[in-house]
Here is the input.
Amino acid sequence: MAASKLVPSLSRASLAIPVAGLIAVGAILPLAVFVVISVFSVDFDAYVLVPDFTSANWREILTHASYWVLIGKSVVNGIVAVLMTGLVGYPVALALSGLPKTMKGIALVVLLTPLYTGEIVRVYAWRLVLGQDGLVNALLMGLHVISEPLRFLLFTEFTTHIALFYDDLPFMVLALWISVERIDPRLIEAARDLGCRPLMAFWRITLPLTGSGLAAGTFIVFALAAGEMLAPSMLGGTSGATPMTMIDSLFGTAFDWPTASALALTLLAVLVVTATALAGLVLVLSGGARYLRWRVA
Amino acid sequence: MIAVSPDPEPAHFSFLTARGLRKSYGRGGYGQSPAVADVDFDIGERAFTTLLGPSGCGKTTILRLIAGFEQPSAGELLLEGVSLAGLPPENRPVNTVFQSYALFPHLSVSENVAFSLRLRQGTGSIDRKVADALAAVHMTEYAERFPHELSGEQQQRVAVARAMIATPRLLLLDEPLSALDRKMRLHLQSELKDLQRRLGIAFVYVTHDQEEAFALSDTVIVMNKGRIVQTGRPEDIYARPVDTFVADFIGGAVLVAAEIKERSGGSLVVATPLATYTAPGLETLSAGTRAALVLRPEAIQPCAAGEAGAFAATVSSTVFHGSGFLVGADVAGITLRYVAESAPEPGSEVWLKILSTKTFVTAVTDGSL
Here is the structure.
């Protein structure tokens, strides 16, 4: 307290400077390198990068539909994951916030435990569950709901969406849970008192007051799902190609670093713009934007 | 909805009735004794009724049971003879003013007030009704502000407007003034009382402040440990407390152990460490029982030395309270309190006498005296 008054630069905000610097260096430096490489070309005889400042790589990306199909699939993966985790996340977050204090700690551990299983383990677990002779088919056939195994369960886009939903649900639930916890339960009672049925109280009070949490969850889940490579490529079958697999092979196998850089930068721009637009849309639609405005003011 | 009996109900004066109302939380731990233990009461139409008691006595729980936020463990609530059981809060003709105000932080003052109207109908006459409600609580010029831009008192006014615009049959108020300073509290008390008369609806008010309860109420229900101890008009509760808990909680009377010698007419003859007095008392008390003599400041008077019935006491404290001094004086191990125009020197001797008609003999609650 006294120190911050004597030395104005020692404010609380200044504590963030080292980390902010680290993030800036860690994020901006590689991007700057990508920007530079993206205008190079490759001498495939000598396997060296040639700094000849060409726009050929960018033209390649912007004019070929196949890159945009991949980027589009990535965006769709992100949006579907946001919708699914949002729809399922709200009831879960509301239920968690209603638990007694001791139960909340246990619930948090249960919620986060799947993150410890490791992605590759989860991928093979999904294969066991959703495969032709997997648990789901065996169960449905055992109950005589179906007579032959469902084939769309594994190695389709459906599988990709299920896996991404499962992987990213904890992040959406956490973001929503934190914002639900901050709502005074009296506000819900007041809404009921004034004539709201429970669902109406959710629309009018809970949703606007948790809009910032939903927007944060949207941003996180979209980034995770749209940027995911392993689950789509190992569970999505022929539909499982993503821009990331393309970037991987361009960098690694083809030694076409300039095209890979241009694609990576394009993908980054599209995803950041989409995520920001989505989060903004969520804020406005939930009514949370207004709430946020006065809270900042 | 609820089917109302086609037979005309016999005339009853009770608007809201509680029968054997009970609420217990959980099992084990501190939830052993119920928050509300088998309570009966009747609340009159258009009456201002106050639930008064120390914190944890169950008064707020009763309010929450009436509002429908909690379900009774046993017993029932009847509104004009019709059970409220199973009716969710949104379907009860009851609205609540919360202790924490509970204004919606993302809505402006006028949107908060219009909340219940917007649920029911289009935008028709809403604006005019909101303007009227805000005018009634003197908040017209704050219509476009947000709750966090208002003082506690202003938020409380908005909360009242928001609840009354829903035209409840019964308005519940949970310690609505407890967060305000004394001057504002007194001011809003008279406004609330005025509002209740104008609206002509029943108010049920919860407070731990007996002054507030007396200032506002037609009927006071005194509660302790989940039970109703006494119900009556404020002046009756003050003059005729049913036991030492009520006497002590209301107006902080000095209680003196008394043994009942005999009953003479409407009065009781009691022996106390001070002297033997003939005083009014509870009808239920009989000779030989242990009781307590309730001595409020107005029952004790300074007098000349040696006057009939007078005794000497030693001044132990003086507190200035505006119109005079509240003097504490010790005699026979008891500290009596009385009002004097000037402050006697602490340690000095004063002569006092007891005006026995202004005292009251009451029952002893377990653990007191």
Observations:
- The beta strands of chain A are 41-43, 48-50.
- The domain at 55-110+159-290 of chain A is CATH 1.10.3720.10 (MetI-like fold).
- Chain A touches chain B through 22 residues (CB under 8 Å).
